[in-house]
């Protein structure tokens, strides 16, 4: 080393300061708040989609049971309170039933759909409502299911 040129070293502590930590938390909070409406909209849409899939599944199941003459009875689907019901014989006092609760975020239009032994029914539609969209499930007299958003 030359005379008069002393090396100076500065040591920095590892870690971060409280101000840096507060800044990071504030930035993450702002970003989270900006995405909250998007996340909630996606959640409502997902719940409506699951409800529609359940309507289609119950309609197919009722149609299959009717065609196969399971228990030699008619089968159908209906809405009871805020639940979808797959029923045997009668919706209000079924011999056999399977209920699916929609939940508070999703509702469906009132319907009572009965399949005959050929798998046919009256033409009807079930509308599933959520806070973000309405999805219509059309069921033709031949039992063909069509979903429209």
What can you tell me about this protein's structure?
- With 149 residues, the chain is α+β, with helices and mostly antiparallel strands.
- The protein has one domain (18-148): minor pseudopilin epsh domain (minor pseudopilin epsh fold).
- It is 34% helix and 27% strand.
- The protein contains one helix and eight strands, in the order αββββββββ.
- A four-stranded antiparallel beta sheet has the order 3-2-1-5, with helices on one face.
- The model has no long low-confidence stretch (mean pLDDT 88).
Helix-and-strand structural type: alpha+beta
Q: What is the CATH superfamily classification?
A: minor pseudopilin epsh domain
Mean pLDDT: 88
Radius of gyration: 29 Å
- Tally of discrete structural domains: 1
| Biggest sheet strand line-up | 3-2-1-5
Stretches where pLDDT is under 50 for at least 5 consecutive residues are none
Strand residue percentage: 25-35%
List the total number of helices: 1
Helix-strand string: HEEEEEEEE
Fraction in helix: 25-40%
Shape: rod-shaped
* Biggest sheet overview: 4 strands, antiparallel
CATH class: Alpha Beta
Question: Which architecture per CATH?
Answer: 3-Layer(bab) Sandwich
